Amino acid sequence: MKNKITSFLDGLITYDFILFGGILLVFILLVVFSILFRKKKRLSLFLAIFSFIFLLVSPFIGYTMMHDILFKNQTILTSQKKLQFTKAVVVHGKLTNLSTRNFESCLITATIHRSSSNKLKDFIYKFKPLKKMSIIEEDIVVANEIDFKIIVSPFTYSNNFNTSLEASCR
Fold first, then answer.
1. Which residues form the domain of 59?
2. What is the pLDDT of residue 1?
3. Which residues are within 8 A (CB) of 76 and not within 5 positions of it... i.e. 6 or more apart?
4. For the chain, does the N or the C end have fewer beta carbons within 10 angstroms?
5. Which DSSP state fits 90?
6. With contact defined as beta carbons under 8 Å apart, do 101 and 151 qualify?
C-alpha cells in the first residue's frame, strides 16, 4: 500500500497540483460563504454539506477527466495466441498516442478473463481476471503508433477466455 501511494505521488504533474489547489480554494470559498450566510440556516447548511462533498468527490473526478484528456491513447488488440508447448499466452497489440503531448512512459496491461455465452457472467468475469501482465513502453511521440507484445505466463486455464488491453500513459 505504501508503494502504491508513493508511486502515485511521484507520478503527479504540475496540472495535478493546480487542480488540487483549485479544489482546495473552492472548498475554502464555499465554507466562507457558509459562515457568511449563517443567518439563513438552510442555505448555510446546504453550502457546508456541498463544500465537503465537493472536497471528497471532485479530486477523483477531476484527476480522471484531466488525465483522459491530456494523455488520450488508444489500444488495439491485434492477436492473441495460446502456446501449445508452454503455459503462456502471447498478446500482440498496437498503442496510438492521440494526445497533443509526447508520452514519457506507458504502462500497458493485458487482462485475461473467462469467457461465457451468458452476458451477465461475462460482465462479472471482468472483475475477477485469471491473469494480468504489464509492460512499460517509453518515449512515444504525438500521433505515433507502436506495436507491442506481452507474454502472459504461466497461464494454465484450458477453456475459452477473453483478453482486454488498457494503457495508462504519462
1. 2-70
2. 81
3. 93, 94, 96, 165
4. N
5. E
6. no
